[in-house]
């Protein structure tokens, strides 16, 4: 079987690993997207701060008299703004006059490589621009013109290293810390929940194993909060109760069969022994032997029934269907059954269908089924000593099937026995000691009916009579 080759894992590991994987992938994705977004907004913020620094400085140095106001406090003020705006120290700011000469810079000495470029800053336009110096260093350069009363007084340049603008903001660290804790929490929750779920399932599995070993006294405590688990445990407990009942029934039924088979053997042995020991002689001995022969035949028939049933149950016997007119067939079977014994106490009546339908069926099996039903009806009637015993055979026709109803006006089947009559070897209490039999008639008949593509079931039963219905498929 393919299920044997599947690799199995404990529920706990299976779920926790699965869940963890999904959780991690999901959180990682969220983390990457969010950190990307965070970084972008951090860059935006930094650029805005740079602009503010440049604009503030331009305003500060635009002197009212039309000249640049570069006093001693300037460097300190710029440094303060820089700190306030969170721009760090790695920044270079300089101011040019209208002739493009650098008149101020902070820090005082700009890096040499930078200076080469910024001595010709005129090509830089107002606003941001990226500047690449050498293979590794990239800078942002920001230009802000200094104006006072519509006069151009020069420009402020801010040069900021690219790597500084892109540094991992603290928010990203925090984000990953949060996501990490979330993953740990999620994993913990699923671990605990799964462990909680696994326990009752393990209990059911262990109890089921006990049952496999033949111990039917398993009862699980259905005191769980989850509906599904509750249902599982309840169903399991019901199942064990049912198994116990079936086991008890089987023992009882087996005792019944043994008894049925033992009785004739004991009778035969007694009769034969009496003749051999010459307890009886002459014509009486002949009579004893005739009785013994009769018992032998009965025993033989029972054993034959048993063998036939087993053969059929093992699937060794097949049904052979032929097309036959149903009305005529059933009428003939009923007539034959009636003639089968001289002193029949019952009448049998067949009410045929208005149009005799042709139906594909196994005549022999149909005969066996109907004989079983007729015999049961007759025996039920005899048990209560009813003299006007009547068996009625009627038909119902639907689109797909034909139902044959066999009704008697016997004593009916007690409610407690109704669901057991199709059980192998089951015999009603009223019949057990009175009529010999193995209790195989109904189960065998049902099996045959199903092999024919139909079914046999108890339709109704009451103190006024019993109806069994045999269904046959019209087209099969
Ligand atoms: N028509 C019926 N009326 C009353 N009881 C019936 C009828 N048919 C069957 N039964 C009950 O069903 C039981 C099982 O029937 P069956 O399987 O034919 O076994 P058996 O006839 O050997 O007892 C019978 O023992 C009897 O108690
Ligand atoms: Mg029977």
The pLDDT mean sits at 88
How much of the sequence lies in strands comes to 15-25%
CATH 2nd-level architecture of the largest domain: 2-Layer Sandwich
At CATH level 3, the topology of the largest domain is Beta-Lactamase
| Major beta sheet, strand line-up | 2-1-5-4-3
Judging from the principal axes of the Cα atoms, what is the shape?
rod-shaped
Question: Can you walk me through this structure?
Answer:
This is histidine kinase. The chain crosses the membrane at residues 20-38, 172-193. Residues 256-476 form the Histidine kinase domain. Residues 195-248 form the HAMP domain. Keywords: Kinase, Membrane, Phosphoprotein, Transferase, Transmembrane, Transmembrane helix, Two-component regulatory system. The chain is α+β, with helices and mostly antiparallel strands. The chain folds into 3 domains: 11-171, Beta-Lactamase; 270-313; 322-473, Heat Shock Protein 90 (2-Layer Sandwich), CATH 3.30.565. 54% of the residues lie in helices and 18% in strands. The chain has 13 helices and 12 strands. The chain has helices at 2-5, 11-61, 74-84, 112-118, 162-165, 170-212, 227-276, 282-313, 326-339, 363-383, 415-418, 429-432, 441-451, and strands at residues 92-96, 102-106, 127-133, 137-148, 151-161, 322-325, 346-350, 358-361, 389-397, 401-408, 455-462, 465-473. Strands 2-1-5-4-3 form a 5-stranded antiparallel β-sheet. A 5-stranded mixed β-sheet has the order 7-9-10-12-11, with helices on one face. Helix 2 runs antiparallel to helix 3 and helix 6 runs parallel beside helix 7 (227-276). The model has no long low-confidence stretch (mean pLDDT 88). The site of magnesium ion has 5 residues, from helix 10.
């Amino acid at each position: 079987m393919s299920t044997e080759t599947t690799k199995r894992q404990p529920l706990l590991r299976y779920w926790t690993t699965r869940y963890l994987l999904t959780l991690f992938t999901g959180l990682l994705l969220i983390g990457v997207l969010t950190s990307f977004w965070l970084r972008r907004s951090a860059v935006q913020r930094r650029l805005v701060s740079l602009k503010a620094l440049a604009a503030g400085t331009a305003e500060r140095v635009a002197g009212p008299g039309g000249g640049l106001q570069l006093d001693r406090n300037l460097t300190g003020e710029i440094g303060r703004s820089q700190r306030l705006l969170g721009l760090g120290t790695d920044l270079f700011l300089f101011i040019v006059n209208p002739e493009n000469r650098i008149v101020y810079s902070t820090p005082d000495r700009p890096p040499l490589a930078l200076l080469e470029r910024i001595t010709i800053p005129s090509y830089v336009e107002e606003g941001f621009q990226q500047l690449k110096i050498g293979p590794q260093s990239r800078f942002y350069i920001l230009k802000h013109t200094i104006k006072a009363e519509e006069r151009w007084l020069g420009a402020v340049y801010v040069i900021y290293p690219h790597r500084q603008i892109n540094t991992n903001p603290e928010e990203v660290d925090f984000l990953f810390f949060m996501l990490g804790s979330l993953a740990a929490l999620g994993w913990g929750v699923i671990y605990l929940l799964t462990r909680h779920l696994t326990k009752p399932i393990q209990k059911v599995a262990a109890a089921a194993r006990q049952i496999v070993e033949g111990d039917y006294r398993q009862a699980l405590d259905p005191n769980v909060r989850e509906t599904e688990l509750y249902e599982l445990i309840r169903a399991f407990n019901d199942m064990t109760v049912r198994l116990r009942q079936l086991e008890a029934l089987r023992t009882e039924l087996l005792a019944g069969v043994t008894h049925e088979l033992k009785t004739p053997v004991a009778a035969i042995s007694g009769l034969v022994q009496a003749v051999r020991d010459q307890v009886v002689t002459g014509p009486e001995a002949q009579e004893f032997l005739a009785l013994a022969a009769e018992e032998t035949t009965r025993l033989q028939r029972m054993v034959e029934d048993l063998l036939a049933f087993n053969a059929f149950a093992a699937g060794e016997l097949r049904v052979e269907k032929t097309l036959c007119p149903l009305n005529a067939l059933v009428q003939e079977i009923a007539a034959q059954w009636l003639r089968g014994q001289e002193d029949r106490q019952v009448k049998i009546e067949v009410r045929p269908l208005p149009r005799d339908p042709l139906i594909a069926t196994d005549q022999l099996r149909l005969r066996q089924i109907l004989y079983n039903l007729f015999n049961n009806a007759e025996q039920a009637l005899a048990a209560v000593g009813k003299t006007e015993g009547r068996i009625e055979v009627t038909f119902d026709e639907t689109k797909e099937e034909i139902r044959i109803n066999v009704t008697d006006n016997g004593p009916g089947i007690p409610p407690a026995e109704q669901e057991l009559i199709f059980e192998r070897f089951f015999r009603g209490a009223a019949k057990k000691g009175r009529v010999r039999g193995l209790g195989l008639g109904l189960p065998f008949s049902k099996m045959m009916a199903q092999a024919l593509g139909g079914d046999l079931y108890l339709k109704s039963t009451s103190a006024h009579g019993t109806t069994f219905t045999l269904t046959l498929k019209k087209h099969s």
